[in-house]
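Methods — Computational structure assignment.
A single polypeptide chain was analysed. Its primary sequence is given first, followed by the predicted tertiary structure written as structure tokens.
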Amino acid sequence: MPFFAPSVTTEADAAFSFLTQQCTQLKITALGLTDEQARSTPTVSGLSISGLITHSAQVVNGWIQQVKDPARPIEFSDHAAMNREIGLEGMFDGSTLPDFDIAEVVVIFDRAMDQIEAARQAVAEKDIDLGTQVPMPHNPWMPTDFAMTVRWILAHLNTEIARHVGHADIIRESIDGAIAYQLNAQADGEPWPPEGWAEQAS
């Protein structure tokens, strides 16, 4: 079941494996939704499943480029071009919606997820130390009083995507009552609820 990350062996393995797992969980929140449902905002928040997946695609794709090439300086002005590489035009904060249906949004997100594996391979093949410092971006939201490393970027991505998975879980449950265990079982083609669920839950 993709609800759990696989066993890991090294720090880099853990960072990439858990990031992939969290991205998978975010994508699963869209399972079976109509485009109207995916774009809906059923809570007091302006966030939607479609908006969160789009925002997370640009976040993952943007940050992971610097993991692949730690010496590469990336500025705010570079993000528009990087977004276009995965099929996005513009910037998305989770409340703004792309002019795509949910199936197209998931395809874009898959392209961003492909970059995670590309970064994993780059770290292994180039023997990139996770403590390698990267150039600090001059973005309005970035603090300037610390040294940024590959390790920091991977930890940041894991925490940000995990936070958005939590957002998406609440939105999905507000749409149709589906919870993460149920959606993971459906994604794996397993019955829901599983045999013995009622006895264990009581």
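Note: Residues 11-201 form a domain with the Four Helix Bundle (Hemerythrin (Met), subunit A) fold (CATH 1.20.120.450).
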